[in-house]
Amino acid sequence: METESEPYVRLATLRQLHQVVAELNTARSLADTLQTVVDGIVVGLGYELACVNLVRPDGDLVVAAFAGDPAAEALITGRVGSRASWERRLTMGESWDGLRFIPHTEGWVLLEDDVPQWHTDGPDPRFADEWHPEDRLYAPMYASGGELLGVISVDRPRNGRRPGAWGREALQMYAFQAAIAISNARLRANMQRALVRLEREQQALRASEESFRQAFEYAPSGMAIAEMGGDQHGRLLRTNDALCRLLGRPASVLRRYSFSDLVHPEDIGTLLRTSAEGGRAELRLGRRDGTYVWVSLRNSVVADAADGPRFLLTHVEDIEERKRHELQLAHRASHDSLTGLPNSAELRSRLGARLCRRPQSVRATAVEALDAAYEGHGAHGGHGAHAGGGTEAGGAVGEHGFRPDAYPEPFEYPGAPAVPGTGVPGVPGPGGPGAGPGPYDHHVHTVAPASDIDDGTKGLAVLFCDLDGFKSINDRFGHHTGDAVLIEVARRLTTGVRDGDTVARLGGDEFVVLADGLGAADAADLAVRLRNAIIPPIRVDGRAVRVGASFGIGWASCGMSADEVLRSADQRMYIEKRSRSKAHRRAG
């Protein structure tokens, strides 16, 4: 089970959250959207009970959807609580950013008000953050204009504890997305009613056109009408003010473009794959200042009259904030929360990306490997000394001037898609399916020096660092001082390496440095420099403390796994640590 103290968000939890957020946009009607909201909380956010209290036109809030307990759902669904009672609740208790938590010690005064509620009796909490059956947690939902749309109420976390920082942020972000989904569902309902009226007789058509015009012009999100079919397919005919503001272009200028002219070059394929009717896509549109904004496009087909031309109505929703949150969550999942360095999972990902499964039996530098692959290239290009169709000695030359036997066996490396016509991942070739390996290898193998003596080979050095004397600092001065030391050590390590190198924290007082293009002597010098950078005193709250560092130097090589590389460096670190006396190891 995930705990709030873990330094990164579990990817499984992140995927669940993304899944339930994505499902908010699949519901068609407002009722389906509301039920999807509460189901997503129970499925993805770890609460046993959830309900949505929706603001009615008269201002009071009605229980519009419930999930988690059929008996409670039958009892309170459809019941109404006054706006005054809800406003009172949203000012009580503790404010958790955009959430409102009312502990059971304060909530007893709410037992007699008119807000529908359901709770079960239970024992008093045994520890500070244990959830009490009468605790209340609310997540208000607001429209883009700031008016209250409704309130999400959750109860009974599955882990029995009050949510920590990650749980609060997840619920707050989910409420933000739910507000967008509910607003969109209401807007879609209005648009569908307008579209039905457009198909009726002329008198009803004129009335519905005015309703449609207002819904289009004053929609809080971007709207556009484009031509459908013909030579001008996709050309924008009409845009609302929200879309003009979003893209920073006046309506008169937008009428010269289609969405294919505005979309980011990398997203053109996504736009083309979006179907005309009922299609949706998330992509980037260009602003006037040259920047791009993430939007969600939703298309529907509109008929101008009973048998008139058909147009494409596109709803453009600004999702830049959501994408930013997704990037922040992804960063949290791959980086240490204390030091900001890449964590263990990210380190293994970066290291694994440099390794392939084929062992490098012949130790050759990247330049030598490419020279072998391109040997004889001058035969056809006119750049070499040979004028014939082969090489002086060393085998036949392929039709492009390099030897097909330079890499005699196929291989795979992480992330390499199969190239059509080869049957081999990442190796292009002229043959059909099942053909042999191509004439050269796009992957430059990672090699390691043959020994600790510098033989000129440059490779990917893996420096495993373990702090000496850190435990005594934690024991004597507390974890606050220990955390400050780890942060400063991370800063010194990052300052002491090149821009392209990686400094990661494995956990505790262990760090790893990945430095490419180093020889054995270079790696040893780097270890000495980093150790000397760590040794100077670190001042924390007016107190100077010192730690030492033991470094083990390992080398990444194709044919090894990331765990094997790290284990090798770890073993070398312990050998280096034992080779020095304890008094000499400890610097503070």
Describe this structure in words.
By secondary structure, this protein is an alpha+beta fold. Helices cover 37% and strands 20% of the residues. It has helices at 11-23, 30-44, 70-76, 83-89, 104-107, 165-198, 202-217, 241-247, 251-254, 259-262, 268-273, 320-334, 344-353, 366-373, 378-381, 470-477, 479-495, 520-534, 562-578, 582-585, and strands spanning 47-55, 61-67, 80-81, 94-96, 99-102, 136-142, 148-157, 222-227, 236-239, 280-286, 292-303, 310-318, 459-468, 502-507, 510-518, 538-540, 543-545, 548-556. The strands form 4 sheets. It has a 7-stranded antiparallel beta sheet. Strands 9-8-12-11-10 form a 5-stranded antiparallel beta sheet. A 4-stranded antiparallel beta sheet has the order 14-15-13-18, with helices on both faces. A hairpin with a 5-residue loop joins strand 6 (136-142) and strand 7 (148-157). Helix 16 runs antiparallel to helix 17 (479-495). The longest helix has 34 residues, at 165-198. The radius of gyration is 32 Å and the shape is flat. The two termini are 37 Å apart. This is Diguanylate cyclase. Residues 378-438 are annotated as: Disordered. InterPro entries: Biofilm_reg_signaling, GAF, GAF-like_dom_sf, GGDEF_dom, Nucleotide_cyclase, PAC, PAS, PAS-assoc_C. Residues 184-211 form a coiled coil.
**Arithmetic mean pLDDT:** 78
Helix coverage percent: 25-40%
Count of helical stretches = 20
Q: How many strands, what sense, and barrel or not for the largest sheet?
A: 7 strands, antiparallel
Q: Which stretches are poorly predicted, pLDDT < 50 over at least 5 residues?
A: 361-367, 376-440
Strand content: 15-25%
Number of strands: 18
By helix and strand content, what is the structural category?
alpha+beta
Euclidean distance between termini CA atoms:
37 Å
Strand arrangement, major sheet: 3-2-1-7-6-5-4
Return Rg in Å: 32 Å
Overall outline: flat
Keywords: Coiled coil, Nucleotidyltransferase, Transferase
Coiled coil: 184-211
Pfam families: GAF, GGDEF, PAS
Biased composition (Gly residues): 379-398
